[in-house]
Amino acid sequence: MKLFKVKKSNIDKKGRGLYATKDIKEGTKIINYVGKIITKKQTEESKKFDNAKPIYLFNLNSRYDLDGDVTWNTARLINHSCSNNCDYDGKGLKLWVSTIKDIKKGEELTCDYGFGYDEDYKQFPCKCGSINCVGYIVREGSRWRINKKFKMSFKKNPRLSK
Ligand SMILES: [Zn+2]
Asked: In this model, does residue 158 exceed pLDDT 60?
């Protein structure tokens, strides 16, 4: 039996999410995060990642990124929460999603999308509804996610270099 099922999300009212089909212990691997492995050069040249869909792009290593915006990647349906119960983990070119706390049957599985903080953060409002919600999908010191536009504005923004 799978640990999750896909159904209409309570967080993303227009979309779907993953829900626990039974109680799951902390530290359990839920699903592989799959997609197309592309070179940094392809990421730089692709307009796709300018702003509309950066949430599916992961930094694998100094040469490759992973484009998870493909229909066969069920893990892309996992929504962001400011009180996430899962997180992305990885080794080499492999990525997966594991639980970071005990989860009860019926709970929605959520991750921290981990965008860097800058003046453009308002393009990603958060509706997770948790008491810790900061209103936007941001996290300082993000490790996996990359966003060309964010990276560039970090360099250009003089307030951040003080
Ligand atoms: Zn939130």
From this structure: no
